[in-house]
Write the structure tokens for this entry.
Amino acid sequence: MDANEDDQDRHWRESTGRSVWRTIHTLAYGMKTAVEVHGMTIQKAKHTYRSVVRGVAAIYPCSGCSRHLRDEHASHFDMLDAVVLTRHVSVASAVNDMALWAFRFHNSVSAAIGNRANEAIVGLGAEQSDVTILRYLSATYCPPAGESSICLA
């Protein structure tokens, strides 16, 4: 493989990774729509989200990346299972817990591959509201394009 092919492969992996992370983060917030608009129960929305995330890890188009997600970050899937089993009394608390799980998972993967973690999310506790996180994700609060694959804007 020549240097140009290496660059193309790296670009493809980075581009695919950004798209997948955007989907994982966005779907955590999408549970609110699933419950409030589509009439899904909170528990069903959480189970569906977990299935999607586990499915992404299973069929990720980069086999090394897929293996890394499943093997090196298995404890995060255990944490996701715990969030799914938590009895949430409101959709906001369920969305918040899923969103925080997604950011912690993303930061763990980023650290493992040598990327920087999202300092704005590291250390946030469950008392943080999904409004705070959504505000961070707006274009105003994100680093300039190309500096972070963590931000959704």
User: Anything to note?
Assistant: Confidence is low (pLDDT under 50) at residues 120-153. The chain has one domain: 3-137.
